[in-house]
Design goal:
With about 350 residues, this protein is an alpha/beta fold. The chain folds into two domains: about 5-160 and about 300-349, Medium-chain alcohol dehydrogenases, catalytic domain (Quinone Oxidoreductase, Chain A, domain 1, Alpha-Beta Complex), CATH 3.90.180.10; about 175-295, NAD(P)-binding Rossmann-like Domain (Rossmann fold), CATH 3.40.50.720. About 25% of the residues lie in helices and about 30% in strands. The protein has helices at about 45-55, 150-155, 160-170, 190-200, 215-220, 230-240, 255-260, 285, 300-310, 330-340; strands at about 5-10, 20-25, 35-45, 75-80, 80-90, 100-105, 110, 120, 135-140, 140-145, 180, 205-210, 225, 245-250, 260-270, 290-295, 320-325, 345-349. β14, α7 (about 255-260) and β15 form a beta-alpha-beta unit. α3 (about 160-170) crosses α9 (about 300-310). The longest helix has 14 residues, at about 160-170. The chain starts with 5 loop residues before the first strand and ends with a strand.
Length: about 350
């Protein structure tokens, strides 16, 4: 495929509201050495898309500074971390046998080459992503999912939400028979946490509200705590022995009030700040119970391999809330920001 061909893509040229998302025509990228070119069939949206567009990540020493996921972004940037599609071309050194295969792209850029490497960059933030008809990716980050019974939309829902969820569960060392508390349970990461924790054999308590409670139950939660009520009181009633692992994408006041819910040796894993990034808590509740607070950003390559195995066996079933065409990217992101949906929002380039 020659670079003289053009494709439709949605780019941002700076930080701002949904109006900075612009549909444009750009050259189809040519895969470099070790890369493949993927024709995008579905791209899922994430909170990361909103926060990257808004520049909402802050920097050390200045939490209000406009910044991308790991620092300043090179504009213009094509957004979109979560891609499912088919390989249509390969660069030198990449296996030609990948051409024609249905794949999921691991969107992370890692700090080292090993299986336990940490993510330090993200497709759609530190490099161009999948809000486009085509995207390039390193061949080693492309996973063959041709035989998975999941749909392309479901496969696109996996990388960030389910990768983040599995990273949290692995770093929190959640084991069969333990009790897990999941915050933000109706969102993409939340539903993924409920499904994977349930598949692990954990007892799952989920926090949700209103009309979403039943959908969270259907995803596998053993009990659902209503966010509108006294969360701590409801959790104590449902899990009088305490929580082994909290899987938290909300943070804020939930951490302050919730640490006392952990049992001896409990782990509080945080991978988001929907409820606020400034947290105060009584450290005595931490050290007197040998508890841990663990930060978790996405997944390692080993975690992603585990996730792809689950998806090949359809042991996770992503819920698709809505689909949009590429030209309605701004509306899709606005729908995501309203948080009225359950599951994942997907676009079709």
């Amino acid at each position: 495929m020659s670079a003289s061909q053009f494709m439709r893509a949605v780019r941002i040229t700076g930080h701002g509201g949904p109006d900075v998302l612009r549909l444009t025509e750009v050259a189809v990228p040519a895969p470099r050495a070790g890369e493949v070119l993927v024709k995008v069939s579905a791209v899922a949206l994430n909170n990361t898309d909103l926060w990257t567009r808004e520049g909402a990540y802050g920097v050390p020493g200045d939490p209000d500074a406009r910044s991308g996921w790991r620092g300043p972004i090179g504009f213009p940037r094509i957004q979109g971390a979560d891609v499912a599609g088919r390989v249509v071309a390969v660069g030198t050194g990449a296996k030609a046998s990948l051409v024609g295969r249905r794949v999921v792209v691991d969107p992370a850029t890692y700090d080292t080459a090993g299986p336990d490497a940490n993510p330090v960059g993200l497709m759609g933030s530190e490099r161009d992503g999948g809000y486009a008809e085509f995207v390039t990716a390193p061949a080693e980050r492309v996973h063959d999912m041709t035989d998975s019974p999941l749909t392309d939309d479901q496969l696109a829902a996996l990388p960030t939400a389910y990768g983040t969820a599995l990273g949290m569960i692995e770093r929190g060392r959640l084991r069969k028979g333990e009790t897990a508390l999941v915050s933000g349970a109706s969102g993409g990461v939340g539903l993924a946490l409920v499904q994977i924790a349930r598949a692990r054999g954990a007892k799952v308590l989920a926090i949700s509200s209103g009309t979403k409670i039943e959908a969270v139950r259907e995803a596998g939660a053993h009990a659902v705590v209503d966010r509108a009520g006294d969360i701590a009181e409801q959790v104590r009633a449902a899990a009088p022995q305490g929580i082994d692992v909290a899987l938290d994408v909300v943070a804020g006041d939930l951490v302050s009030k919730g640490l006392s819910l952990l049992c001896e040796g409990g782990r509080w894993v945080i991978a988001g700040a929907l409820g606020g990034h400034e947290v105060a808590f009584d450290v005595r509740r931490l050290y007197l119970r040998n508890a841990q607070v663990i930060g978790s950003a996405m997944h390692t390559p080993a975690h992603f391999d585990l996730l792809m195995d689950l998806a090949r066996r359809a042991e996770v079933q992503p819920v698709i809330a809505a689909t949009f065409p590429l030209e309605r990217a701004a509306q899709a992101q606005e729908e995501l920001s309203r948080r009225a949906h359950v599951g994942k929002i997907v676009m079709h380039p």
